[in-house]
Write a structure and sequence with these properties.
Blueprint (H helix, E strand, L loop, with lengths): L2 H19 L3 E3 L3 E5 L4 E3 L2 E3 L9 E6 L2 E4 L14 E3 L10 E3 L11 E5 L5 E3 L6 E5 L6 E4 L2 E3 L3 E10 L7 E4 L4 E8 L5 E10 L7 E8 L5 E2 L2 E16 L3 E3 L4 E10 L3 E6 L4 E4 L2 E4 L9 E7 L2 E4 L6 E8 L4 E5 L2 E11 L3 E6 L2 E4 L2 E5 L2 E6 L8 E8 L2 E8 L4 H9 L1 H12 L4 H5 L7 H4 L20 H19 L5 H5 L3
Parallel strand pairs: 2-11, 13-20, 21-28
Antiparallel strand pairs: 1-4, 3-8, 5-6, 5-9, 7-8, 9-10, 12-14, 14-17, 15-18, 16-17, 18-19, 18-20, 20-22, 22-25, 23-24, 23-26, 26-27, 28-30, 29-30, 30-34, 31-32, 31-35, 33-34, 35-36
This protein binds 2-acetamido-2-deoxy-beta-D-glucopyranose (5 copies).
Length: about 500
């Protein structure tokens, strides 16, 4: 062939090719995957020679049988009601949908177009078969599996399918913002993706996130992934037995909810580090033991518990500044007691046990007040008790000015007393072995002294002390009030 011939030949081919472009052609995939029971849409576009067409009749066939015809009665029974031409034939779109796919719907199928007059064509050289799958293809599921609390989590769930008219339905096990996206793949396959966005919460930790996909026709898939949410400790609390006796040991345990698990530190309220570890043992607790708190620590944060103040129980301690006072001629005695639990406060005046006329409680302080006719008594005993023990203290009654004067004036009496002692009259013997307390000498100062034994409660072996005390009282009283009754009168019948 010479060059000219070659040129003509190629021009011919080119012309033919351009001519075939606008000739009887169809574009269909040779095979489309379809899920049994679901639907399939066979994508199809066709072409026909350059003729002015106004009426279009699109038909789909398998061999010489019609699986789709616009006049339904022309469709073979097996496909009646299940096939639908989705494409707009005037726009050269011949896409076909087959519903409720059955195993025997494999094809192969081809398209036929009938335009006006003799312009009809069966594209039987381009057949489409449907490869049936019994179960949906695996689902793609993606989510960050480890997040921090509050972080935004995006989860993606996507599946391929062949039914764009009724794409699969997605249902998430977690609330959040959802987005649906669909993408056309090749050969009649579509990809449907659901995106879920939410803010992670600690309650999501270790919980599976599920994406339930329901395909048209009813088949389901439910992939899931467990999310780990890291969060700073919460519910940091100290477990302990609140009531503990002074001097005993208290065991404290800290707990918290955290991911990853917490480590613990113990501090005193003033900030000193006491211990590291989940438990803390406080030995020899005292009423002054400082409040403590624990701190739960993990990589996400440090969180303190509330402060724990043990309720340390201890027997009463009567404050030495407890006293009797006189105001406007009214005498009252305040007995101030430190104890936990609060104490019962009684007074012993002579042979009488008197309840407090007034009791005030404020925390560990109980104040018992006695206001009564104190008569000629020089002192009153305050007695405090609680479940852990008891305590007592002698409170001296105030000496009024009048009496003081008499006392000074009767200096002779004192001298007489000294003489009596000096001359060794039986009284001296009686007064021997005194414990050194001399209520007489403190009478005017109202100072409190301890210990003092009280008649009702005192053991007998210390009776001698009492006699002594009463003796000295008697001598004092002798001059002031002429009370000559010795110890017996005060203590005998108690
Ligand atoms: C043909 O019609 C189908 C169904 O309506 C549609 O999904 C597809 O996009 C159309 N194809 C083209 C090439 O326009
Ligand atoms: C317990 O504590 C008190 C003071 O709070 C102290 O006097 C005492 O010795 C302590 N006892 C022991 C066994 O540590
Ligand atoms: C209780 O005692 C505290 C101090 O220990 C004091 O601040 C408070 O005023 C007292 N309350 C009453 C009602 O006396
Ligand atoms: C304190 O002593 C009184 C009298 O002895 C008694 O009735 C009371 O139950 C005691 N209280 C406690 C808390 O022990
Ligand atoms: C008073 O207290 C002393 C110790 O302080 C004790 O020995 C005595 O028994 C107490 N008396 C009474 C009546 O409780």
């Amino acid at each position: 062939m010479d060059a000219l011939q070659q040129l003509v030949f190629f021009m011919c081919i080119c012309f033919k090719a351009t001519q075939t472009e606008s000739s009887w052609t169809v574009d269909v995939p040779s095979s489309v995957e379809g899920l049994l029971g679901s639907c399939v849409v066979i994508p199809c576009s066709y072409n026909y020679p350059d003729i002015a067409a106004h009426t279009f009749t699109g038909i789909w066939r398998i061999d010489d049988q019609v699986i789709y015809h616009p006049t339904e009665s022309n469709t073979m029974e097996k496909y009646r009601g299940r096939t639908k031409l989705l494409g707009d034939l005037s726009k050269k779109n011949c896409s076909l949908m087959i519903e409720n796919l059955q195993q025997s719907d494999g094809g192969p199928f081809f398209f036929r177009i009938e335009l006006e007059g003799p312009n009809k064509f069966s594209y039987s050289n381009n057949k489409v078969s449907i490869s049936m799958i019994g179960e949906p293809n695996p689902t793609d599921f993606f989510v960050q599996e480890e997040v921090k609390e509050g972080q935004t989590v995006s989860a993606f769930c996507s599946v391929s399918h062949s039914c764009p008219t009724n794409p699969p339905d997605f249902h998430w096990s977690h609330s959040g913002e959802q987005h649906f996206q669909t993408q056309n793949l090749q050969n009649g396959q579509w990809k449907a993706t659901s995106t879920l966005t939410f803010h992670s919460d600690r309650t999501d930790n270790n919980k599976p996130l599920r994406c339930r996909v329901t395909y048209h026709g009813g088949k389901q898939r439910e992939p899931s992934k467990t999310i780990k949410v890291k969060y700073a400790p919460v519910n940091v609390k100290v477990e302990y037995q609140s009531d503990v006796n002074e001097g005993e040991t208290a065991h404290l345990k800290c707990s918290s909810d955290a991911n990853p698990v917490s480590s613990y530190e113990w501090h005193s309220e003033s900030g000193a580090l006491l211990n590291k570890g989940q438990t803390y043992t406080m030995s020899n607790v005292s009423r002054n033991s400082e409040a403590v708190y624990c701190t739960a620590v993990n990589e996400e944060g440090r969180v303190k518990s509330s402060t724990v103040q043990l309720n340390v129980l201890y027997a009463p301690d009567i404050e030495t500044y407890s006293k009797c006072s006189s105001y406007n001629g009214i005498v009252k005695c305040d007995c101030i007691v430190q104890s936990r639990p609060p104490s019962t406060v009684h007074f012993v005046l002579g042979d009488r046990v008197l309840p407090s006329s007034k009791v005030e409680k404020n925390g560990s302080v109980t104040t018992g007040t006695l206001q009564t006719d104190f008569g000629s008594f020089k002192f009153v005993h305050c007695l405090a008790n609680n479940t852990l023990g008891n305590s007592n203290l002698t409170l001296f009654l105030p000496v009024n000015d009048n009496m003081q004067n008499i006392f000074i004036a009767s200096g002779a009496g004192v001298i007489f007393l000294i003489i009596l002692i000096a001359t060794g009259v039986g009284v001296v013997r009686k007064c021997r072995g005194r414990s050194g307390e001399t209520p007489t000498s403190d009478l005017g100062t109202m100072k409190a002294e301890r210990p003092v034994e009280l008649p009702r409660y005192a053991p007998t072996k210390r009776k001698e002390d009492r006699k002594d005390m009463s003796c000295s009282d008697i001598y004092a009283n002798d001059h002031l009030y002429g009370n000559t009754d010795c110890d017996e009168s005060i203590y005998n019948n108690v």
